[in-house]
Fold these 4 entries.
Entry 1:
Amino acid sequence: GENVGLHLPTLSVQEGDNSIINCAYSNSASDYFIWYKQESGKGPQFIIDIRSNMDKRQGQRVTVLLNKTVKHLSLQIAATQPGDSAVYFCADYNNAGNMLTFGGGTRLMVKP
Amino acid sequence: EAGVAQSPRYKIIEKRQSVAFWCNPISGHATLYWYQQILGQGPKLLIQFQNNGVVDDSQLPKDRFSAERLKGVDSTLKIQPAKLEDSAVYLCASSPSGSRSLAKNIQYFGAGTRLSVL
């Protein structure tokens, strides 16, 4: 992932709308991806994961899409709620298999 | 099930001083990780333990950082001496296993220790 310093990309959505958070990864050998949610003052919390032999996986109100051709990952949140406000990180396992590499994060702000 | 416990939550020190952080992973989790998270960035792995052995410490600045997990359960991370650029949140995480089994790779994070070096 890229280092975006203090200025995280921000996505602002209206409560009830759907949110789409995007992530690009660089390692074509990565074969396992995870989305984490991090609220202020807390550690990252697991949301959903996907292996590279899948292109879509659904959870409760969340869907992860994987496009290996362009090395792109997205997290879709349906009916976004104020409690979804947080920073979202994608992470992937490197080709050695055991080191999780985090992207720079996207801040999601939900307007009531 | 209790989560990953870390202490202290906050620490303020002056540069060149020493500091230590403590982590107690989820019971039964074999793998323990320490991450450094600088403001506005994603966590960066410092060191990974499998039970009481080091699996990966390639990104640990070994001239000043050290970590141990003597009995394969809780762990301490130490910085000696601290520099201004060490100001960050230090996160501990644990997972059932360091293997590539899908569920066993999920890492569970503590709330972190926020370090400010003045």
Entry 2:
Amino acid sequence: NAGVTQTPKFRILKIGQSMTLQCTQDMNHNYMYWYRQDPGMGLKLIYYSVGAGITDKGEVPNGYNVSRSTTEDFPLRLELAAPSQTSVYFCASSYRAPGDTEAFFGQGTRLTVV
Amino acid sequence: GENVEQHPSTLSVQEGDSAVIKCTYSDSASNYFPWYKQELGKRPQLIIDIRSNVGEKKDQRIAVTLNKTAKHFSLHITETQPEDSAVYFCAPRTNTGNQFYFGTGTSLTVIP
């Protein structure tokens, strides 16, 4: 059981480039989330999804886009990368409404924008 | 949305001592209170959780206590070991909220 898988693990982008961070889960979870974690800081919610075809903004959505065409996949798109987007990105999923269930995290993607 | 604070932000203890981290929240409808541990360079993972109908839960050296009236819950680690060194996050939740917010984090260092 792979759980939540993110790719790539590391990436260096130049300012203005674009990229997609991939996230897939094999637990048939409805809820999926994207977070960013700056050095020494907490987890900030970027976007989340409660099911295929449904996405919504979190605390820090500017500069990012998401889609959820299937239950398994929840890619995060960065358009026109900026140095402020240098961070570690975590994807997570949970079975149902997060009120009473565990969130499972991917291993993270370390992104540097230069 | 939920306003979540953790105290202290950093904590250093000698190996074998106890550590306590407190999480305060604002939404009185919160009814699920988990703690996550994030080791350096790793992903956050759930270590213990409690629901609002329970005041305390223990799992070996870790425990969580809940005070719903005062709107705070705490993580207790006894007989600390170097492998307990990590950042700990609380993440109080309601049944109806779709978003998943984490506290500001507490960096625990256990000194051998």
Entry 3:
Amino acid sequence: DAKTTQPPSMDCAEGRAANLPCNHSTISGNEYVYWYRQIHSQGPQYIIHGLKNNETNEMASLIITEDRKSSTLILPHATLRDTAVYYCIVRVATGATNKLIFGTGTLLAVQP
Amino acid sequence: NAGVTQTPKFQVLKTGQSMTLQCAQDMNHNSMYWYRQDPGMGLRLIYYSASEGTTDKGEVPNGYNVSRLNKREFSLRLESAAPSQTSVYFCASILSGNSYEQYFGPGTRLTVT
């Protein structure tokens, strides 16, 4: 699975959009980009995933560049409850293993 | 549905003691996982079970054993605990190989003195 690079921390004002970047320059054609978050030592929570098209769900949007070497997770209206560590993970989607390789993630601090 | 449950929530062991961490899921998932998380670090995979009856090593299996007791339960055993195993342990499950969302338990906080 490809390696990802994320900034260690970011701040965002409450109510504003939070844009979390991730670099995955060695991503392969069959690898998906996944985002999970971990709120204050709880178990990680799935947010969204994508292959090459932009994706949106009720939690967030995922923008993947055309060359797929980087992506951005967007929380459109950040709240204090969105303060968490956000993990960008690249992994092959097929097969039975579904192993996730976590990096150190980005600590997003939403400020009032 | 309770989702993924873990017991105990907290545990303190002395070096050399043994214990078993329990994990259960009620979502009829096929695959289950054990991760550890050290302070300031991401999660690292210890062992996983792709399906009932199978187990495989992850990134950091040394010092641990696992048992997939049935489809619902996946336990992690420390035979002789060491201070280096002080960590938070998370169990997770996923429906199948084609699924995308792993569900995580609340974690077990283990301290080995």
Entry 4:
Amino acid sequence: GESVGLHLPTLSVQEGDNSIINCAYSNSASDYFIWYKQESGKGPQFIIDIRSNMDKRQGQRVTVLLNKTVKHLSLQIAATQPGDSAVYFCAESILTGGGNKLTFGTGTQLKVEL
Amino acid sequence: EPEVTQTPSHQVTQMGQEVILRCVPISNHLYFYWYRQILGQKVEFLVSFYNNEISEKSEIFDDQFSVERPDGSNFTLKIRSTKLEDSAMYFCASSEVRPDQPQHFGDGTRLSIL
């Protein structure tokens, strides 16, 4: 079946460095992608999203890149801070008129070392 | 910033008992969702709800599950006869009318079935 998966389960970075979290998706029909951050004991927190008609989208300290040719999504965090330590999930969906079911990846644990 | 709120934060129930998980979505949102996350696994879609009816449901959402919007603010998930394998974190989410708007999640209810 279709699935969304993350390449690396754990990523350790030094404070101040840039982080890159990767995600592979397999459903070529997906046209909307979201990155969520989940801290311990909390629900997924929206970070940034991108539609399939875009290759790149920037937010505050975060950038999402979408490569539809190889079905790859990445999240770049600039100047990583200790508060960025969390599990990061990518999620994909197919936009319909009736709301969009999200299919989540397995998650990457980001650890920021001081 | 408006947020999705869920109660209770932790629910312990005997196997075979009914349980109701409650959610208050963001006030101007019209799409509502339930997801679950079994410990150590992915976040999984259960059901989406719009205009007082289910718009999509997953294979997990069998006859033991039901959702309801009993008034103008609450959105509930009922499990009629709980099983051990229903133990998980249950997340409620809501989104605006346009399908390309991100879903915002609550902090979840941890359901423990004994």
